[in-house]
């Protein structure tokens, strides 16, 4: 306790120096928090925008162009696998869409809309009209409707390569924010697609979301084991988007490196400052040793100083970091008034940053602590 | 009376390109409760002798015994405990910690041994400061005290853990003659009341003549040892 009391008193006595050190640590920690949270949020935004509104795990037939039978049973087995979010089935196929004047190649996607909406969020993306209410209705994407100059209530014909043909009425227009989807997809009810392609009571895919999208590969493997059916194969977004994944991993690595360098700076800064403090306080340490303080307690004085500086710096740094993030989301806005990046504050990350700063500062106190234990009272007495 | 400090053939050599021998086979004993002075010219080795017998420095050869225990071979932690419990130091420069008040400085030896200041310890510190005439300034930072007040605070601190021995190296070297007299009177009182052994190093023969025994050092040897 004597060591802690002496440490706090040393820090209080050199108030300006202490404030300067705490601010120094705080700035470093706030940068670490800011960069860490920014890159993490950037990643989750990017991931959300690219793979968030699509299935992360897909069950397909193991053979090309072959549909899946007994899909109801399979879908319920997929749904009951651990770590699976929403599950939907789809009957899809390539076709041509025409209004009599123009023809466009399209991917017809037959969904059970309420079910598929949990994955694609397409109901919220319908900006004109409604989702198909009957098997004779269809949803068109924004770009496709513009290309063919079509609007809600107009009739179109869909023709498949195998001679299937169906007349459908446009019930609504959607905008999913991805031009290729808006241009290439037409969405209709599951039964309509099954009839058009002659699938009968079969589907082409069972699609699922995973709450933690980086778990997709593990979940896909679990589903494979759960359904144990050689006629189907399970794919996941991670295997299909290897480039995106390696980009994300590179980003994570660079973020971790930046954070590691910041921590190294914290350690070096505190260690060097405390080393100077040992020199400044060597007279006091010598006197304390003459009074009978043990080397261990004398070392503890500097360890405690490191801990206290780390504690103060980490707390102020967290506040600064959170303030920086808040002002970033408040002031850095896109043309539509929404924040450029929506940054979410993860308490675990903040707690980690705090702990790491605190521990680094404590570790930084070890070297000066060892130095102080070598000080001899006689050097101080003689020196004076 | 029993010996509390005993030096047997103590030699001290400072290493260097030309090693300097400062103490030459000193044999010296001080009795418990005695009031002694060591005198000598500047560079005679009297401060080195005090440092060696007070455990602040180790002899190059020979034995040092405090209270019957060999200190020249003691481990650092045992030495620290011995200093804290048995010895009080008063130096020429007060060596108070500038970060603490007078009261806190006096409490430091007790905090070092017990970790915290008990009510009893605080009462004792207050009593000692009262004895030194410092009650009014006890909560002042040590840097805001006069030279005499600082030295008296250092004496109160040296007495805090009821030491058996007080080692004082030129304790009034920086003080005017009036304050010096007060300090020696205090030493005398403490010696009489608490039977604390005093070993005072001074270059001032008049001060030495106030003590019960004068040991004179010349070129690292005992030149004179007078008991009164």
Describe this structure in words.
The complex is a heterodimer of chains A (384) and B (228). Chain A has 384 residues and is of the alpha+beta class. Helices cover 58% and strands 17% of the residues of chain A. In chain A, a hairpin with a 4-residue loop joins strand 6 (155-160) and strand 7. Chain A starts with a helix and ends with a helix. In chain B, the strands form 2 sheets. In chain B, strands 6-7-8-3-9-10 form a 6-stranded mixed sheet. In chain B, helix 3 (102-114) runs parallel beside helix 5 (147-159) and helix 4 crosses helix 5. Chain B is globular. Chain B starts with a strand and ends with a strand.
Quickly list its features.
heterodimer; A: 384 residues; alpha+beta; 15 helices; 10 strands; 17% strand; elongated; B: 228 residues; alpha/beta; 4-stranded antiparallel sheet; 7 helices
Q: Percent of residues of chain B in beta strands?
A: 25-35%
Overall average pLDDT of chain A = 86
For the report, how would you describe the main beta sheet of chain A?
6 strands, mixed, barrel
Oligomeric organization of the protein chains: heterodimer
Q: Please, what is the average pLDDT of chain B?
A: 89
pLDDT < 50 runs, ≥5 residues of chain B: none
- Shape descriptor of chain B reads globular
> What's the gyration radius of chain B in Å?
17 Å
Characterize the main sheet of chain B. Answer: 6 strands, mixed
Radius of gyration of chain A: 32 Å
Helix content of chain A: 55-70%
Low-pLDDT segments of chain A: none
What is the share of helical residues of chain B? 25-40%
Q: What is the topology, as strand order, of the major beta sheet of chain B?
A: 6-7-8-3-9-10
Strand % of chain A is 15-25%
Give the chain pair forming the largest contact, with residue counts: A-B, 26 and 30 residues
**From the helix content, strand content and strand pairing of chain A, which structural class follows?**
alpha+beta
Q: Give, in order, the helices and strands of chain A.
A: HHEHEEHEEHEEHEHEHEHHHHHHH
